[in-house]
Amino acid sequence: MEDNNTIRLRVFSLNCWGIRYLSKHRLERYSMIGELLSREQHDIVLLQEVWSEKDFLGLKRELSSSHPYSHYFKSGVIGSGLATFARHQIHDAFLYRYSLNGYPYMAHHGDWFGGKAVGVVILKIGGLTANVYVTHLHAEYSRDKDSYLPHRVVQVWELQQFIRHTSGGADMVILGGDLNMHPQDLGTRLLRTSTGLLDSYTETAKFDGCEGGITLIAENPFINPKELGPFEKGVRIDYIMYKGSGRVSLRCVSLATTKGSVPGHPFPYSDHELLTAELELQMITQHTEGNRTREELDRNAAKLAELVDMVTEARTEVKVGLHCVERMRYTAARTGVMGLALLLLELAIGAVPWLALGANQPFPRTSFYLLGALCFAILLTAFLLYVFYTMEQKSLQGAEDQMRLAVGSLQERLKEFPPTHALNSLRRPSDDLDLCPLEPEE
Amino acid sequence: MEDNNTIRLRVFSLNCWGIRYLSKHRLERYSMIGELLSREQHDIVLLQEVWSEKDFLGLKRELSSSHPYSHYFKSGVIGSGLATFARHQIHDAFLYRYSLNGYPYMAHHGDWFGGKAVGVVILKIGGLTANVYVTHLHAEYSRDKDSYLPHRVVQVWELQQFIRHTSGGADMVILGGDLNMHPQDLGTRLLRTSTGLLDSYTETAKFDGCEGGITLIAENPFINPKELGPFEKGVRIDYIMYKGSGRVSLRCVSLATTKGSVPGHPFPYSDHELLTAELELQMITQHTEGNRTREELDRNAAKLAELVDMVTEARTEVKVGLHCVERMRYTAARTGVMGLALLLLELAIGAVPWLALGANQPFPRTSFYLLGALCFAILLTAFLLYVFYTMEQKSLQGAEDQMRLAVGSLQERLKEFPPTHALNSLRRPSDDLDLCPLEPEE
Prior knowledge:
Helix Hairpins; homodimer; six-stranded mixed β-sheet; seven-stranded mixed β-sheet; Deoxyribonuclease I, Chain A; 442 residues
């Protein structure tokens, strides 16, 4: 698999749909996945929705010889659902929990309990440092009325921040996961442009899978086609992305996805299709430190301008979220005040018969206590919601502040673009990592 | 302040004790702090416990000419309390919220509501990238019976992970903040050894301040000396730390702290003492890429071994925390079950008179409802606590997993130490960043 100067890496990503007691044929599907992985021996396996640690441990046992290294990321109430298996040693692991992730009272959506996050494991592959990221963003339950959009935009913002800031020392970056976003959605574009990650579907030399690379498809028997809305055939929301560095160039040789069924099995691996990308690493032995061409500079300037637009668009989305949360916070506060007023009113009415305890009560004692309990419940719920919405507001404001800072910094760099023509070539590649990487890929 | 090849940087850190309505002389103290900062014009200002955004905005207005760049980190319910001001442009900001931070029901301690975190701002200083971190860890309310120790250990673990992973592309790293840990505490040692950060107090050429560099001192009028316990004079829990890189060497020229009073003012700036460190940056123009000496290798091996011990010690602390949370989780579950049993019992007893609604009730209706409400409150509280403890458990387990991985990786590197003598010099500096930096500082 390796020659003198090139290494081939096979990367696997799958949303396993592993909800205990709820996901159909869970155990059978895990055994199919385990069998596939131990047969195919991908170098890097990135799994999402492995909600039960027991299932992870089962896979770990099964893959102990094919994939001796693994890490399971714990987070939230149920877990993050993120797991990695590797044939190369994992030297370090780190988890970033997204600051926003739905609402605990939307229990039927369940995202909040999952503690959505991005995990990174650091591998050494042929003497090179690979930062391998796995993530799963908040689900999109309705495309027309997507109340979670600001949360997902903040998640993608934090994701790109995390990748950019933690990959400074890496020779290559690989990201796999279920982004719950279409390729042309703001979040996907922002992620690609700000980190410089390349989408294996658009970059691959060879593709085998459904038309358009869709990974949530109508033909999958676990999918209710109605949920796909206007996208009759399906949508592409699972990705494998990658980028090299000044030391390594990376290209995608092939990408394959399943098509809703598995030969010899009555059902597919999951409700999502699985992705397998084959990447080719080529060591860059000679640095071409010459002046960048005018063309390159123009392309970089165009990308920066594009990025400014995207971050501005993301800011607008976050502002919409802020507007909503401010309204909800106000409603919670008002409800709390009403509950308190009702309680005080009740106490005032009850005060006189209370003093004459033995007399025939004008305010029936049962109703008195029931009403009191109700007022208290309203007060408590309103208080908890108020605290929760305040935290949501703080996270949204924090993301917006960071975005404003980024737009300012980008615009300044954009202004300086033509005169820095000569200077640019003096920069080290890592200088380019702040918000727009634009590294030479070959 | 700058000559050809050296730059001097003045870094300021202060826990401002800015709790609205509670902290004494808050506004007067902020005006003193603002006046000091605009007069002294430190390059980098790192503030903690700026709990109110209004106070931050007040400072921002006051420092608009001396410190044109600033960032306020938002988190939790009240905020993270973290703020930075800088004379150099802030290009990017990113926040990591610690996964554990006390308990919401310990409202009198308040840490949970503060959303403790570590913030980083990226500055460009003389063409160099500086990663500047500011943080504030969970308070230590009792040294003998410190129930928050596992939380603080996990926070310091996440802090060192965050610094190590995000500083790969940085030319220099500066950290300021209130760690709430003594210099010889496990957390401080772990932080220093794993990140390679140098403590300005132990490294400085010149020191002006209280004996032992203490920053929470008995002489401060806002301090109750009883809270210092056996440390009669005070403790050192506020730090400025720094490190260079292969491109820049950094040394601490001087460190100064206040001594509990401010000339010309009736009270000090805060209940903590402020720190001012003067750092000298020297560009490394020539790389000494020669083989490392035997001595250096031995020192590195000793440091690695030390780090293994520390991470193992931290793991033990986390395991103690896990043991506690498992007990608390069990108690919450048992209480919930008892509440449910009581509710069912009550319903069963009440069932017969319920059917004969008009008759003289054997179970008084008032008591019936009161008891019902009580059972329901028990059930709800137990459920919320159970969910909270489950999340705490997941975070502790996650940190322990990461620590186990780190110990394994470190031990492996330690084993390989003597034979890699020759190879070592071929490594790039960033290779050394995983868990033990040990960069050449000159």
